[in-house]
């Protein structure tokens, strides 16, 4: 753990309704995908599930979903001659596997941490982003570390069913669960004393809240992967083929550098 106080704009290295019926199509891959036939729930489309507000990975701008994960999904779709169709869902619906099982989406790209529990309900691609956590407070707070937060029984905002949520429990923090990133607004207004979340969205939100500081970086052993319906080997191979291409040709670096705030220290 790194316990020095840093600016919230941290230096990051670029790597990081049930469906009652569905139309199933078989799509040949003429691009850089697996070459196998893919079954998608909508003809000619790759239906992608994500959250609606987790910048910079997914967010709405001018009525359109954008972000690192949206660019990643576009590369997967391109390699398989498909158009992206985005579906926004609550995070818990995605991580439970229900969204995939009920054919609400073909893949999940939503800053999805690969865990053993989640791997029991979906298959994961190769990793595409290495993640870390940070404990963020308002400048001037007496909380200078995770241990300070524990000792003072500080209220620490976390997003439910995320790595931050699990890590807060592991560390013994007095965590307050939120369904979305409104926890940052609560930190600004004094509703919570600190927030434990991924370093990347912390850096993103610090643009709106410049008095936020990261007082401790927390190792998370956390990698993001694309979620695929359990047993859908053709889709999994197609996703991994795209990941292999964009890692080797530099496209993934370009996408990451486009969306992840990077500052020199």
TrEMBL record:
The keyword Ribonucleoprotein does not apply. Residues 45-262 form the Ionotropic glutamate receptor C-terminal domain. Residues 1-24 form the signal peptide. Gene3D superfamilies: Periplasmic binding protein-like II. GO terms for cellular component: cell envelope; membrane. PANTHER family: ARGININE-BINDING EXTRACELLULAR PROTEIN ARTP (PTHR35936:SF17), MEMBRANE-BOUND LYTIC MUREIN TRANSGLYCOSYLASE F (PTHR35936). This is Amino acid ABC transporter substrate-binding protein. It comes from Kocuria subflava.
């Amino acid at each position: 753990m790194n316990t020095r106080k840093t600016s919230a704009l941290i230096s990051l290295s670029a790597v990081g309704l049930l469906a009652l019926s569905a139309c199933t199509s078989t799509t040949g891959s003429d691009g850089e995908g697996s070459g196998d036939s893919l079954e998608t729930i909508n003809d000619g489309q790759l239906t992608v599930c994500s959250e609606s507000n987790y910048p910079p990975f997914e967010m709405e701008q001018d009525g359109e979903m954008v972000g690192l994960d949206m660019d990643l999904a576009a590369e997967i779709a391109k390699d398989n001659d498909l158009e992206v169709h985005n579906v926004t869902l609550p995070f818990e619906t995605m991580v439970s596997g229900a969204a995939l099982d009920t054919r609400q989406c073909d893949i999940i790209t939503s800053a999805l941490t690969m865990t053993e529990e989640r791997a029991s309900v979906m298959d994961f691609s190769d990793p595409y982003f290495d993640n870390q956590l940070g404990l963020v407070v308002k400048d001037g707070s007496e909380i200078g570390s995770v241990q300070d937060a524990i000792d003072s029984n500080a209220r620490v905002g976390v997003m439910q069913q995320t790595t931050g949520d699990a890590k807060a429990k592991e560390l013994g923090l007095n965590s307050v669960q939120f369904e979305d990133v409104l926890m940052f607004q609560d930190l600004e207004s004094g509703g919570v004393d600190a927030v434990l979340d991924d370093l990347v969205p912390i850096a993103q939100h610090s643009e709106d809240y410049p008095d936020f500081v990261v007082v401790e970086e927390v190792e998370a052993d956390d990698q993001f992967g694309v979620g695929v319906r359990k047993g859908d080997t053709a889709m999994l191979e197609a996703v991994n083929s795209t990941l292999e291409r964009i890692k080797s040709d530099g496209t993934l670096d370009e996408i990451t550098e486009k969306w992840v705030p990077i500052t020199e220290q």
